[in-house]
Amino acid sequence: MAEKQLQNSDKMQRIIQLLSTQKAKLFRREYLDLHVHEQAQIFAELDQTLRSRLYRYLTAVEVGDMFDAIEEEPEEVVKYFQEMPISYAAKVIDEMYTDNAVDILAYAQNKDLTHYLLALPEERSAEIRSLLHYEDKTAGALMTTEYVDIFASQDISSAIKDIREEAADAELIYYAYVVTDDNELIGVVTLRDLLTNPEETLISEIMTDPVISVPVDEDQAEVARKVRDYNFVALPVIDYANKLVGIINVDDVIDVIDEENAGEYSGLAGVDTEETPEDPFRASLKRLPWLVILLFLGMSTTTLIDHYEGLISQASILAVFVSLITGTAGNAGTQSLAVAIRGLSDSEEERRSGWKTIISELSTGLLTGIVTGLTICVLVGLWKNNWILGSVIGVSLATAIIVATVAGSIIPLVMDKIGVDPAVASGPFISTLSDLTSVLIYFNIAHQFLNFFINA
Amino acid sequence: MAEKQLQNSDKMQRIIQLLSTQKAKLFRREYLDLHVHEQAQIFAELDQTLRSRLYRYLTAVEVGDMFDAIEEEPEEVVKYFQEMPISYAAKVIDEMYTDNAVDILAYAQNKDLTHYLLALPEERSAEIRSLLHYEDKTAGALMTTEYVDIFASQDISSAIKDIREEAADAELIYYAYVVTDDNELIGVVTLRDLLTNPEETLISEIMTDPVISVPVDEDQAEVARKVRDYNFVALPVIDYANKLVGIINVDDVIDVIDEENAGEYSGLAGVDTEETPEDPFRASLKRLPWLVILLFLGMSTTTLIDHYEGLISQASILAVFVSLITGTAGNAGTQSLAVAIRGLSDSEEERRSGWKTIISELSTGLLTGIVTGLTICVLVGLWKNNWILGSVIGVSLATAIIVATVAGSIIPLVMDKIGVDPAVASGPFISTLSDLTSVLIYFNIAHQFLNFFINA
């Protein structure tokens, strides 16, 4: 991705040139002048030789700041640590925000991880070790431990003094969380509150309580919803005893929202659009598994049609409408599926119950099925001047749409219940399943009226 | 949506009860104690009688704060203003953040709008009038004019004094934008910078420049990308002469990201999942247009198959494989389409050129087509013990996949070029188009080998 931006940016090309020609001082000046996001883009373009040189030209603190902005996958970034001397790597890790460092260290080999943790200051090492335990995609895995905490008994001027001191290390200083001696979360004040009230005001007088927070094992999708609904810049994370254990920042939440949306989207298409590489060979490897699996599933429909070959050979007109019926029912199923998957991304409280969804989709299926069925009945009746054929196609299509619509709403509910992510290739699955049921419905209905079609 | 949360919350039920029984004082105390997001959820549950009562119990300032958190569609919210006396409505609008007020007023009737603007303080009225001119889905339409600006020649203590004064009105005080006398944007400082440097430091010494900003006519998707890439809490908006005209906050950007993602997603399924109501009758009305349009498009495939009915009546085995070929090619086309649409959401610089995309998709289509074609050739060859039939199906499928894959990448590019949103029902379109080409390819190839299939 970064590749394209660099091609458009002479400045970035020149900086790489400075590194290549070993102009250490000039390189430092121009590189460090950039936003860390741009520094990280340049870094992604370097080969191993240039990266090693960069580690020599920059301090571990400077590299650590830049690593906070790296967008490559953590399993890639962890390899960079292996290129550095261990003490340098430890300093880079030390400088990074804890949540980012932990994301990457989760992919380190055990041996390396031990080395880094030993080289880190004891407190940092313990912090990282504790965060490494949290399950992926929970609040605990998203949170950082660099926040500002104050006491309710402080006054504003003393709180501001505390914030000033913690400002260099804290990832976010715009909210200060109010805790008891036991670290129980009891309130929150914003920097705005602190700046707009008299200096001698007590925190207890101005703090907001109760605080909106999330438990440490909360699902990341729920975290994203809370931040979005309440328009927070950060959200505190508490443990089972209401103790403050970390905060989650809005920028990490944006990544979660993107990730969750991409998952749904990829599932509808049967391809992981986020990870699809540009190289055609590797892109094919990503797409082929689903294509081939769906091909095998599609064979079940083929076998079923094969079963009715005798019927077709007697009335070949029947073959003409198979695609129309399977295609239209598939479209109806996909619509229903998309609505159901989106519904699953609503918060627990906002969701409709499963039964309510199914009954509502059944009614929707009935209505859309009848309208669409009547339409095709008229079309075919007029086209072939055969109203019995039209009626058979119409009734088959209506029934197939009703079944596909209900299936489209049930399948993600069931997958969600048994713990499978409904976003995995569910779009092509529903089409394939709906093909099967549509063919079954169609040929069974058609069979009853066979005499009317022979040589229709 | 709020309905379900309220059922789970006795507290919220009690507050509505207090309003119903005209307990003004108790109602005020408990209602105002809630977060505005929760206040807005309760408000959404009230009927017109209770809403009128609420306007009497609360000041316009309190209602204005709550209106900033309302999540209903602006065309709905604007109706609430009509329920209030004009001077009260104007005060509510005055209290709201300008960007939110403008979003809603964009749906007001001209007569009402004139009344509100006349009742507002002159400065506010001018601000709102100017923002109403910006095109929907641009930076101008997203931005707010309540920001903090300072001069480079100020020192930190004077800047903090300015921020304190503006804090009550500004939507975001964590960044202060540095401007010239002409309001040209030349730098930015964060509150963190101000708190961690000595009070006598000049702003010019610590400000970050140049500032990352967006032009006022920038597309909202590009704005969202910048905020996400740079992890900003807000992004300044400038006009053609580099003058600061507003800022965009991260919470508004989150809504944009959701909106853009939902658009892509809805397009893949041919249904607007965001606006699909729960009522089956209205849901059907939303889904039917695409179903029926696609049904008519599907009729073209049907007519084409009808054209080959003679072929089918001679070799009914051919009908057995139509669904498999159209279905699999459709899956391949949808994969390619999803990747292409996601690619369009990358920023201008990150995008691959159109030709590069097409050549890359052609290669991917070739590879996936050949592998899938070989697979089905073997399957059918073994199943029917007819390797010529297997080869015809294999070659047809491979060709159909190649065509569908390339079409899937070209169609969104073309739609984007001619200014049509590729997210509109593009998923079902590609399936339908690919059905047509697949059938054409299949029957033409099959026709050449007809003698081998008769009574196969």
UniProtKB/TrEMBL annotation, chains A, B:
Annotated InterPro entries: CBS_dom, CBS_dom_sf, Mg_transptr_MgtE_intracell_dom, MgtE_N_sf, MgtE_transporter, SLC41_membr_dom, SLC41_membr_dom_sf
Keyword match Coiled coil: no
Protein name: Magnesium transporter MgtE
Self-association state and partner proteins as the record states: Homodimer.
Family: Belongs to the SLC41A transporter family.
Gene label: mgtE
Compartment annotation: Cell membrane; Membrane
Organism (species): Ligilactobacillus salitolerans
SMART domains: CBS, MgtE_N
TM helices/strands, residue ranges: 288-305, 317-341, 362-382, 388-411
GO MF annotation terms: magnesium ion transmembrane transporter activity; metal ion binding
